[in-house]
Design a protein that fits this description.
One of its GO terms (cellular component) is membrane. The chain is mostly helical. Helix content is about 65%, strand content about 0%. A two-stranded antiparallel ribbon has the order 1-2. Helix 4 (about 90-120) runs antiparallel to helix 9, helix 5 (about 125-160) runs antiparallel to helix 6 and helix 5 (about 125-160) runs parallel beside helix 7 (about 215-260).
Length: about 375
């Protein structure tokens, strides 16, 4: 018996057996919650047994992997954009702001979630719970509105063309300031009584209280969804719709001009047979789809709670965390790595990490619009 107690494998086996026994017993998901956290737990969760420990382990592993990839990717974007002179443009300040927001979100949220997944409950107390949820709300909203501003910037350059008023450094900084201030306002509202931050059903993360039956509290969820989900989504779709429309019209004009001149194409290279509008349509579709996949699970969970359309289980609350944090992983890919000049700078400094962009990437002898887009992120 003494030897077994010193054996790490035996100790782990006994602990795991105890957890599985609890999972199959009549215990509830809140039995491991700290006493000082009990007042934040909605009675709804008392009906559910403990989650299978495998889910906690899987969640901790996935978040750890996402955190590592996100911190590496966004850290690289921040480093390259702040140290490369050719990338210090007003438009790229928005991309930099997006990378900073995603980097801070994963820095603040990934480590606590991994630790809590190991302990299978929130172990840092009520204040840390509120701060954790506030960080998720703040940086998530900043990322959402920054992506919207990036879409607007592209709309301004591509659709309005030379008639557009160029964005200056001061203009970009003012937009970033407005994003941070408005996002902070939505973040602190629950701390002053308009809704509140509570542990989620899996008890390892914290978020808004969508189970409160008070309509004053529910109104925050509705208003937040309108301002931080529906409005940005509509604006992004609006921007990319007219961007694709403008590029398609431009491509038609180029083809007609080429026919008049009896040449196959006015483009400098036809190595890629895909037309510009098809490329842009793919990028737009990817941008909108990834954005939709990232934030819709949280919206569904919150709306299901306030409108009581279905029963929310502790396991169901995991997906909101996973999908929203995954957004911080592919943002550097969509908005950073797809940027031709960023790829060139990455190739120059870290040749093993990047593919050098082709010299004729998105260039045109007859298009000022296509050329000017190269200064923007190409996603």
């Amino acid at each position: 018996m003494a030897l077994d107690s010193l054996d790490p494998a035996a100790t782990f086996g006994h602990a795991w057996a105890g957890k599985m026994e609890a999972y199959g017993s009549n215990q509830t998901v809140i039995d491991q919650v700290l006493p000082e956290m009990i007042h934040l737990i909605d009675p709804h969760w008392y009906q559910f047994p403990p989650m299978n420990p495998l889910w906690h382990g899987l969640l901790g592993f996935v978040i750890a992997v996402l955190g590592f990839i996100s911190l590496s990717g966004n850290g690289m974007v921040i480093y390259i954009f702040t140290t490369t002179k050719t990338l210090k443009t007003p438009s790229n300040l928005l991309v930099l702001n997006l990378a900073v927001s995603d980097f801070l979100m994963m820095t603040c949220m990934a480590p606590p979630l991994v630790v809590n997944s190991y302990h299978e409950t929130w172990v840092f107390g009520p204040l840390a719970c509120a701060l954790y949820a506030a960080a998720g709300s703040l940086f998530g909203t900043i990322s959402i509105w920054t992506m919207t501003m990036i879409a607007f910037d592209r709309y301004n350059v591509i659709v309005k063309g030379i008639a557009a008023k160029p964005m200056t450094n001061n203009g970009a900084l003012l937009r970033i300031l407005a994003i941070w201030v408005s996002s902070l306002a939505w973040t602190v509202a629950p701390m002053f009584g308009w809704n509140r931050y509570v542990p989620e059903g899996n008890m390892t993360a914290c978020g808004t209280d969508y189970l409160n039956k008070d309509w004053f509290s529910r109104s925050y969820i509705v208003a937040y969804a309108i301002f931080c989900y529906f409005t940005p989504l509509a604006l992004i779709i609006y921007s990319y719709f007219f961007i694709i429309q403008a590029v398609a019209a431009h491509e038609r004009a180029m083809r007609e001009q080429a026919k008049k001149m009896n040449v196959a194409s006015l483009r400098s290279s036809e190595a890629a047979n895909t037309s510009a509008e098809c490329k842009l349509a793919k990028v737009a579709l990817m941008t909108i789809s990834l954005w939709f996949m990232a934030w819709t699970p949280y919206l569904v969970i919150n709306f299901t709670g306030i409108f009581e359309t279905a029963t929310i289980s502790p396991l169901g609350t995991i997906w909101g965390s996973v999908f929203a944090k995954a957004n911080a992983v592919y943002n550097p890919i969509v908005y950073g790595i797809s940027h031709p000049k960023y790829r060139a700078a990455l190739y120059q400094r870290f040749p093993s990490l990047a593919c050098q962009p082709a010299a004729d990437d998105n260039t045109s002898q007859a298009s000022g619009k296509t050329t000017v887009c190269e200064e923007k992120p190409s996603a």
